Structures are given as C-alpha cells and as structure tokens.
Amino acid sequence: PTGMDLQFPPAGDSALLQQHRISLQEQAPELLCLAAGDGYPLVVRLEALTEQAAADGRQLEQLEPGGPLPEWAQAQSTYAKLRKDEEGRWQLQILKQKIWVDGTSYELQEI
Description:
4-stranded antiparallel sheet, mainly beta
C-alpha cells in the first residue's frame, strides 16, 4: 500500500470536515488535476512558531494567509493535485514538499 493510510479529519468529526474540505461541486475537478511549472492547484501549509518567537509573544494569527513567512515562523508546505484511481475515486497526489526553517526553504527528497 502507498502512503500511511491516514485520514483527515478523523472519522466522526463532521464539524472539522466542513471546515477543511474540497467540494468538487464548487471547484472544477479538471482544474484541480493540473499542475504545470510553478503552478499547483492545491497547497497546504502548516505553520509553527519557533521557541524564541513564542517566548517573544508572537502568534500565528499575525501571519497573513498565503503571505511571506517571517524568520520567526517555520512551515511545511505540501504541493499536490487531485487524480482518480483505478476505481474512479478521487485521491490526492503529492508532487513535492518544502520546509521553511529560519527563513530558508528546503525541498524534501525521498531517502
């Protein structure tokens, strides 16, 4: 099997599902399947504060969604697109991942 078979949100958490869902009725599925050059249809960025930033009273709410990342914050970005599997179910295909540490970007590679 591929991946770690994790599901988000966990089964039974319908409120969280409504906040973090992709509705194929609201988006054109063919656009969510295209990725070319530096364009990705789906980007998920997880952000965290450094210990020093938290001690200095910084908060993630100070960050502009999708905006530049200051050095006091760290992040992991996942770039992906949708695809259909052999049975016609929609799946997420991860194309690349990057982490940001101390203002520097690192692209993650398979080991």
